[in-house]
Amino acid sequence: MAFVNAEDVAEDVSEDHEEVISTIYNRPVPQQSPESNGEPFATYFDEKIPIPEDEKHSWFSFRKLWAFTGPGFLMSIAYLDPGNIESDLQSGAVAGFKLLWVLLLATVIGLLLQRLAARLGVVTGLHLAEMCNRQYQKVPRIMLWLMIELAIIGSDMQEVIGSAIAINLLSAGKVPLWGGVLITIADTFMFLFLDKYGLRKLEAFFGFLITIMALTFGYEYVTVKPDQGKLLKGMFIPYCDKCGTQQLEQAVGIVGAVIMPHNMYLHSALVKSRQVNRADKREVQEANKYFFIESCVALFVSFLINVFVVSVFAEAFFGKTNEQVNKVCTNSSSPHAGLFPNNNETLEVDIYKGGVVLGCYFGPAALYIWAVGILAAGQSSTMTGTYSGQFVMEGFLNLKWSRFARVILTRSIAITPTLLVAIFQDVEHLTGMNDFLNVLQSLQLPFALIPVLTFTSLHPVMNDFANGLGWKIAGGVLILIVCSINMYFVVVYVSALGHLALYVVAAVVCVAYLCFVAYLSWLCLIALGISFLACGQTVSVTRTGLTEEPPVTQIN
Fold first, then answer.
1. pLDDT class for 99, splitting at 50, 70, 90?
2. Is the dihedral of CA 184, 188, 191, 193 positive or negative?
3. Which pLDDT belongs to residue 104?
4. Where do transmembrane segments lie in this chain (predicted)?
5. The pLDDT of residue 30 is above 50
6. Which CATH number applies to 62-451?
7. What SS3 state is found at 555?
8. Biggest CA-to-CA distance, the chain
9. Rounded Cα–Cα distance for residues 226 and 273 (Å)
């Protein structure tokens, strides 16, 4: 591995900005800078939002906070996608209020990790995919790109499933599931036209969708009237009384659903939409501060919405049996009573059955309002997934596609298996795909978390904003915890497959997967300062401070 400047440092950089990092040396593969072709390497909107001056309020200004508001709320949509909503309702139905503290902890961990991604984009002017492109060798770079593309496609499939189920519920079953899947193709292209109206209007539209989710799921919360004492106890006391394997797996599922790999790439790119003079240390500090405040507010809102969903199902359906629900649905003349067999097994719910049982217990309004909330979650997540895909493709491959072409590719890949399941299977198989997709995305987490910790810990990349010792230790521990939890989730899922051939395939994939994770972890540990892993060889790394297009290093 070698750290080298991507440009001709002998001509452009003074010797005053050199430092030595202990590392393993291999022959570097220089990356041609996109700017050398005379074209700007921009992966976001042409428009950049100016930041107003506010001399009266030097420490904190609501005007400035408003100017920085937007990227954090777009990022927070990943915490509200249909996969998260399904995890929430299953948590409530399986464990009641007892796992709310896990949701709170996962959201806080997510906030701290998003902070690293945002700082990377603000300080360097490059988002995470661009940094990977410029710093990793060709083979690991392509492997990283493929892994993140898998995560984006998996997320896209969950959003298609959620939207199709919502359309089916809203139409009282008149639009079949496969029809809802096809509709999601058309509406995504329609939303892309919002680009024409400017960045702030697009951000306002996403804010509108988040508001719809808050109102719809808030309506369900007010209707059900959860026990506030149990809610607060479950949120702030980290204990799960009389919990077994099922509750443990659900807790792991919450963490896996909340922290999304492609969201790190998305957030690091979204922050580039504000005008920040990176040559001015004060402006960079200010941008970091306001983006963090905005992220706190955005994730607090998303946390409240998730709490609404968990609490509704914890209060109304925790401990219920299929027989009880079947009787209530039959008495309310629901056409969906057959979904629940007449037995004493514990009720199992998903986003489809969730809407049905709400309708049985609290009337048709609860069902339709639930479906509107799911539709808003699916559509908003679809759009942010589209942008994530574009940033990742452009950053890793220096390949510029229009959003239209990008949507054609990812949506075609996502819709094909979803459409086949919707046509030839029933809704239970469609919602059952979410378990597999959660596992798929859990596997991709190291490929976002490890690079973001690596780059934000490198002084030649981040200069004075590199992670300190406390953040290096905390970041490493958090990433280890999150990845371990998600690996447990994967092991539980694979162990339930029950077929020898699948075990063999899983073992082979696991070996290759762990080798790649170990490679990335090795580079990360060197960046964190564990220099003896670099075998004692040294290479000079040049940096120029906070410039508009800072030189970067390359990891081989």
1. very high
2. negative
3. 95
4. 92-113, 144-169, 175-193, 205-222, 291-314, 356-377, 404-423, 443-461, 473-494, 500-533
5. no
6. 1.20.1740.10
7. strand
8. 81
9. 41
Q: Does 17 have pLDDT greater than 50?
A: no
Output the pLDDT for position 452: 94
- N-to-C CA span, the chain: 4
Strand 538-542 vs strand 18-22: parallel, antiparallel, or unpaired?
antiparallel
CA–CA dist 354, 357 (Å, integer):
5
d(CA 456, CA 504): 38
Please, what sign has the CA dihedral across residues 495, 500, 502, 508? positive
Distance of alpha carbon 67 from alpha carbon 87, whole angstroms: 33
Q: How far apart are CA 49 and CA 54, in angstroms?
A: 16
Residues 224, 312 contacting (CB under 8 angstroms): yes
Mean pLDDT of 81-100: 91
Residue ranges in 398-499 assigned as alpha helix (H): 403-424, 427-444, 446-457, 459-462, 469-495
DSSP character at residue 545: S
Q: What are the residue boundaries of the structural domains of the chain, listed by start?
A: 62-451
- Taking alpha carbons only, the member of 272, 273, 269 closest to residue 130 is 269
Query: Is residue 153 a contact partner of residue 161, using CB atoms and an 8 Å limit?
Result: no
Per the structure block, which two tokens stand in for 191?
A: 């939303």
C-alpha closest to that of 149 among 384, 385, 387, 389: 389
The burial class, CB within 10 Å (0-12 / 13-18 / 19+), for 511 is: exposed
Distance, CA of 277 to CA of 159 (rounded, Å)? 37
Tens-place pLDDT, residues 293-352: 999 999 999 999 999 999 999 999 998 998 999 999 999 888 888 888 888 888 888 888
**Of the candidates 193, 158, 532, the residue with the CA atom closest to the CA atom of residue 379:** 158
pTM of the model: 0.85
Question: For 130-140, how does the pLDDT look when each residue is reduced to its tens digit (9 = 90+)?
Answer: 999 988 888 99
Residue 7 confidence (pLDDT): 38
Please name the residue ranges forming H helices in 318-350: 322-331
Task: Give the SS3 label for residue 280.
Answer: coil
Quick one: CA torsion of 109, 303, 287, 193, rounded to 10 degrees? 120
